[in-house]
Structure formats: structure tokens, C-alpha cells
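The material for today's practical consists of a large collection of protein records. There is nothing in a record beyond a sequence line and a structure line. As an example, a complete record with its sequence and its C-alpha cells follows:
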Amino acid sequence: MSLINPSDSLERQNEKLLRIAEALMNRVEYGAENSGDAYAQFERAALLEKRVRERTLELERTLDLLHQSNAQLAEANRETEAARRNLADAIETVSEGFALFDSDDVLVMCNSRFCRDFRDMTQHLRPGLPFASYVAKVSRSRYLALPEDLTSDTWAERRNRRHQDRHVMFNVQLSQGRWLQVSEHRTANGGTVVLQTDVTDLMRLERAERDRLKDKQARMVRATLDHLNQGVCIFDDHGRLVGWNQKTGDLLSLPARRLQIGADFAGLIDRLDDEVQFTRGLTREGFRLWAASPQPRQPVSFEIRRGPQTVLQIFGRGMPDGGFLMAITDVTAEREAAQKLAELNEVLEQRVMERTLELEDALSAAERANASKSRFVAAASHDLLQPLSAAKLYVSSLADRTQNGADQAVLHKAESALTSAEQIIDALLDISKLDGDGLHFDIRTVALHEIFRPLRDEMAVLAERKGLRLDFVDSGLMVQSDASYLRRIVQNLLANAIRYTESGRVLVGVRRNGASARIEVWDTGPGIAEEDQNAIFEEFRRLDTKASRNEGLGLGLAIVERACARLGHPLGLWSEVGRGSCFMVNVPIAGRASAAVTQNPRSARPVGLSQAGLIVLLVENDPQLSRAVTVMLESWDVSVLQAASAEEALSLLADLQIEPDALLLDYQLGPGPTGIGLYHSLKERMGALPCAIISADRSPELRQDCKALDLTFLPKPLDRHRLGQFLTAAADALCRMG
């Protein structure tokens, strides 16, 4: 516990210590005379005196430090005041109005030029004035010139809103035509510096320059109007003439004394002589009413005729200030040209009509020629297929009978030649059908594996002969297409790939392409140059390669392109010379196919016919084909009844009183019933019998008719394997019945 109070002054603390020392000395002298501790008390008193002296010295040093601090503080205050006076003097020397607001938007200081032009609020500019109060007082100052559409409160609200921006600059108009530019800038501690600059002289110079430019612009407009090839006149909102060019008087034949500043529009219209006639668009009275109508005026355009030949076009339009202008153009030459053009058009229309009639006749002749061509191609193909079919059957019969290897090779070459001729005829028929207008497709849901699997077996032999690897990536997708034409497209692309590929592989697969299945045929052939990629789809166009010279007709890709176009299946091609090619066909997806049941293919050779004792009625009006079929069937130990027409067949069966086991009927039998008609007649007499319709007509309609009647369709030239399958099935049915 301290003997003195530290909060006392140094003088008071020194006084207390002296009193304590005196009391201790008196106690030592008088209070301890009889005590044995006198000496000890003396020692304590001496110690206390020493401590008092030390404390006194410390207090004196503290007083010295305090005096030094007070002196330094006084010096700092003097320097601060000097700096403040210097800052105030510096601000006062600024030629602009200056004010500083702190971070709380309270006025700290300003110079005498700040708000000097607002003399009615100078008394309110004191430190501590809030920024909002400063704006409110300025907005109510009588020296502030507010725009007509603003009130004091609205101006103050906008001013305070702009104060929220970091940098602000705008102009304020004062009374007596003076202007201030006000700018605000933020300080580092969040305060605001406001500067007011008198820009009256700049504004006056700008206005003077603007007026000078207006005068110059007016002179330029006047010069421009005088150089226009049109007449132009301008009227104010009261219909008084305020501007025009010389061309106006020339076009309207108005004397110069009529065209004067302030001339009335209605009076000018009335002074137009009788030679001026309003011909198109508006009448004279209608134009007068348009000019006198209240705002807004809609643009008008009309024509007048002055004299016997001059035609003037007048365009009128309202202006923002309520006036209007007229533009007058001489269109005499244009109207004369239009008249001549109209006369020429009449002549041309007559010629076009005559030419159209000629073209219609030519088109009709072309359509008849095209129809005649289609009929000729169909008939010629039928006539060509008849002897071709007979020749193939004769060759096949000889091949079955001879065992000589050299003869077998010759017969094989002959059959290959006949097959090539058959392919040419088939291709020509396909192109003729695809180019015609009467082609109808059987669009239905098709499983892609039904297209791929037969082609795999068929094309594997061709690929194996050339030492190529043929791969199919099977697909379970279902697509919407014509099954027969889609098969023909893929078949032609595969045959083309195998033909032009000397080594490597051919790959067939399917990719999903959005809502389509993209069938792709890849090969490792020589590739196709970019300049040849369009030409390869032309008829009989083959690239100059060894493969194309030795085989191929040049029609496969032409058929593919036409079939894809008619079916709406986009066809694509990628190829790189030296690497190979890829043909792509996009077909709409219909779903996924169910798993197909694998069946063992039946042999196409007529095994066991010799033991069946089969009797076949053959009705064929071509003698050569009839004889060839008969020779082949008899080599298979099948008994044949021949007839050349339906009438002859019915008569033959009536005479022999024999019921055949199967029917082979040509569809086209000349005059009289067709093969299907003969089948109906025989069915009425003998009931349903196994029947095959033979025809070179491969139209979908005939195939559909045969399918509806459960008849086998055998296209010409006859394929001996398919014929053998039909007869074998008929023999099996006969055995089951027996």
C-alpha cells in the first residue's frame, strides 16, 4: 500500500513526504527513549529518509519530462495551425470553387469561390453542413435556372442520385445566362471533393459556333437545293412558303413574283393554270385538304400533267415542326419508257404465249416419247430375256449332262457371259423404272439383318475369289424402306467395293446417326480422287482402272444414286486416294428387330425329283424358252405337258384327262387370259395346285398379286436353282398327300 496518493500533484506529494519524515523523526526522538529499540528505529528512519529523497528525485525528473512534452505539444499545435492556414491559403488561391466533405458527407472546409454565384446561401456554408442540406439549399436558390420540366425537389433528387457515383461531372445553368461545371471526386478515405468551374465563356463560344454552323448549314442547304434536279419547296405550319429552289418555278411554270417568302400554299395551288391536270393519286382539292389537315400528315405521292406531254410526280411529307415539304420530279421520260415497255410487254406476252403453246406441244411429245421409251425398254427387255432365259437353261442342261472338264469350262464361260447380259438388262430396267413417274415403293419396316445375311452368303464367294476379307457387323435395327430396293442398293455398293479392291478387306456395318441408321460400306481399294467423286454416279462412267476395264457395267452406282434419291435416303461418300473409300446410306430407324431364327438353307438342286414322278403343266408362248425348260425338266425326270396359250392348255388337259401336280405359267401369254387368269380357271376345275408365275415383268404390283394368291414368282431369265426349289417343294407336298 502506498503512503501517498499517485493522483496528487507533485507539490502535494512532496509536502506529504516531508510531514511523514518529520513525524518519524519525532517518534524516534521522543517515543523510543525508554525502549531498547531506539537504534533500530533510527536506522529505519534513516532508510525512510533515503527513500523519500529518491522518490523526490524521481518526481522532479517526471516533472521535467512533463514540461518537455507540453512544450513539444505546443510546438505541434503551432505547426498544425500553420499547416491549416497554409492549406486554407492554398485552397483560397484555387481559381475554382472548392469544397471538401468527409466520409460522412459533412462539410469540412471550402474556399470563398465555392457557391459564390449562389449568394443567397453563402451564409449557410459552414463546417458541419450535411451534403443533402447543401443540395437542398442550392435547388431552392433563386440564382439556379431550372429547366421548365423540373421542380426544385426533382432536381435535388437527381443531384443526390448522381452523388452516389464515384466520379460526377455535369453543367448547371444559372440566372443571367451563366453556367457552372460541377465535378465530384472521391478521396482515399471516402470523402468527396466538389469543384465548381465557371464555363460561361465556353458555353457562349459553343453557342456562337453552333449558330455560325447553322448559318453555314443553311447556305449549304440552299446551294444543295439549287443544284437538285428536283423542285423542292418548304411550307411552315401555317402553310406559308419558307424555302424553295429555282427548279420549282421551272417545273410548275410559276413566275418568280409568285414564289416569295410567306406565299400562301392554297393561293399557289389556285394559281396553277388550267394546263395542269391531276392525273394519278390525288385531286387538286384533295391535295389542298391534305396540306390543311391537322397533324400528323401522312406521306402522299401523285402525278400531274402539264401541257400535252410533261408529266410531274409530286411527293409530299409532313415535318416535325408542323410544316410540310413538296418534292417535284419530271418523270416524262420514265412514263414514255413505261408506255413503250407496256407495248413491248404486250408483244412479248403474245410471243411467250405462242412459245408456251409450242413448249406444251413439245413437252407432250417428250412425255409421249418417254412413255414410248419406257414401253419399248420393257418390251425389249422382255423379248431379250426370253431367248436369254432359254440359252441359260440349255447351257445348264448341257452342264448337267457332260463330265468333260474342258466342256464344263466352256459351258461355265458361256453361262457367265449370259449372266453378264442379264445384269445389263436388269440394270437398264432398274434405271428406266427409277427415271419414270409411275414407280411405287413398298415402304415398310425392314430388319437390317434380313438384308445383310443373304448378301453375306452371296458376296462371300466373290470376295473369296479375289482373296479379300469380307466382314459384316450385324445390326438389330429396324428401318423404314422398300426391302427390295434397299437390298439392291447395298448389293451394288458391295459389288462395287469388291470389284475395285485388289487386296485387304471390305467391311459392312451400321452406325446410329440421330433418328437414322447409317449403313456404311468400307473398302481398302485405290480410293477416288475428289474431282471424280461426282462423276462416278453417271451412267456407264467407270474410272480408268484395271478392275473397271475387266468387269463392271458402269451402272451400279447410277442405280444406287437414283434409288436413294427416290426413297429419300441421303447418300454420302468419303474417299482418299491410296487408302480406300466409304459409301454411306442413311435410312430412318423404325425400332429393333427380334432375334432371328437361324435356319439351314435348303439345297437349290432338285434332289429326289426322279423318284417323285412329278407331272408339270408348262404354259409358255415363247417356243425356244418352252423347249429349254422342257429339256431341263426332263433331265430331272419330270414329265412336262407343254402349251403355248391358256386356251391350248385347257384343251390339252381336257383331251388327256390328266391332272398335273404343279403349274409353270408364263404371265404374258399374248391374246387371252394372263398366267394368273389361267390359274383361276384351273383352280376352279382342279382345285389349288402348286403354281409358279414366270415373267420378265418385275414390277411390285405383279409380285404383290402373286403373294396375295400364294403363288411363287420366278423372274426371267429363269434361275435353275429357284426352279428346282419350287419343284422339290411341290414333290414334297405330293408325297405328304400320298
